[in-house]
């Protein structure tokens, strides 16, 4: 209808474009206006519809458009658009449920927008509240005895109507005499009536905490865990189903309104462990009968002593590679080294989290999540780090990518602190592979107070170089490997005690002429048993519901491939592949199109700014154009004729990953492109699910 009214040369679409362009983001270029004007040459073309499409893509609202038509003085177009704008009744302020003290007066508010002449009617349960025909309803709690406590408001204009959400008014008797009928919420501000209580749960239980308060204006809530806000927890009740050890910690609730703020007491939530899995005693595997146990197999212990093999309850690894430093020399090898070790460790049944380019806070959170994977007596925990580092006073430090030019221990992660936390988890085997320099940091003269380490015969340190020496990269064409991993990956799959394996790596490294006298592997260990990376896992398949598996699974879930259907009849496939736990490849492919559409392609736009997305690495016609040395690995599983985009830094994602699929196509016999857009939300992929922010 608007097109019929505005497709003319007088007070038409050009005047509308001129007035809308008063706001810079809605201003159309000369080329865009020419594109609109050429629509008259099409059988069903409309310059107005083309202009409205351009304004819609720039998020122009109907109300702004109506204002432009009013300034044009086009009364007929204003009436057409006014009916579209005003027919819908929208409730802008919903009444809120409240917990109040007995004898107080409680205001409920419902505000709506829509056509002129809106009327209100409040209901208590199914009964109309007499005389309650204004946006605000004031309830005297002294009259609530025996009556329903649920309230709702109907807003109507003529035959059109809509209802607000239900509001529950709960009346509580306070234990304090002073908070009875003479209580005045306006004077007192906020008062918490019900405090959360500490609890101890088992994995898989439901966590339920409650904090109830009264106040005027009505209170709002925000729950915190370990003094960090819990995303989406903004109700009086906090409920988490199927809890894991990831949910353990100290919880509190911030209660606030426009004028006041109070905090609930802080309570501890313990997630108890399954007593059947708390033992950290290594299992023994009898090579004669295949039985597992904590003691020697009784059948074969006397007559034919079997060879006994230590078995793991689980094996997990955290691999971190830092390359793109903000204030220091860029590195090349970590991307290749981390990927190579990930593939090899997965062959040994390790649960692997592999991450690239982490800032200080992200590294700390990644280590915290790694420690959760080590819960319940995990046999082997392996931490590999490739990047800049240093060693002072016997302590090793991993340098994050955001470390300042003159960094100290305050800006870095101390390896010995991580070891101490791993010991507290009672892991059976702690392995540190540190592919970094160990030169002294002259800017740092502070001796960190790590605390006493426990005496355990299960620690292995494999340093890529000796104390006060540097570690080097080996350039091989477009790829670069660290010297350490170049030799480590030759031996990693061998069924050898871990210290014997690292000795063989050291011997191989000693044969390399270019680093002789400059870099040599150093091994430190107090391992007293023959423990190897190849040890089997026991009991297989019995801890699939444990916290380890839940946490690990969260960090490795890719979005499901999906099809996006456009109005023109084109169907686009969205597919996903993972390079690392925090780097994802998205590819788009046109899988169906009408016969009258000739050229067609789908591009990604509007990717969240907090992610590390290089525009040069988006919407590429071949995987090789993305510039990743790992293309041959993941591209094998991708279909042909796609556009590829590489999304990095998923650990920085603060909300669900949403982007726009922009479809550009041409009809047969036409040169001009037509464009359609659809917004797509793929949730929190890979490591983003762990909320490292």
From TrEMBL:
Report the residue ranges that make up the Caspase family p20 domain in this protein: 313-441
Under SUPFAM superfamilies, the record lists:
Caspase-like, DEATH domain, Immunoglobulin
Concerning SMART domains, the annotation shows:
IG (SM00409), IGc2 (SM00408)
Note the Pfam families from the entry.
Answer: Ig_3, MALT1_Ig, Peptidase_C14
Ig-like domain residues are 89-164, 185-270
Q: Name the InterPro entries on file.
A: Caspase-like_dom_sf, Caspase-related_regulators, DEATH-like_dom_sf, Ig-like_dom, Ig-like_dom_sf, Ig-like_fold, Ig_sub, Ig_sub2
Which BP terms from GO are recorded? Answer: proteolysis
One GO MF term: cysteine-type endopeptidase activity
Xref: CDD domains:
Death_MALT1, Ig
Q: Which domain of life is it from?
A: Eukaryota
The name of this protein is: MALT1 protein
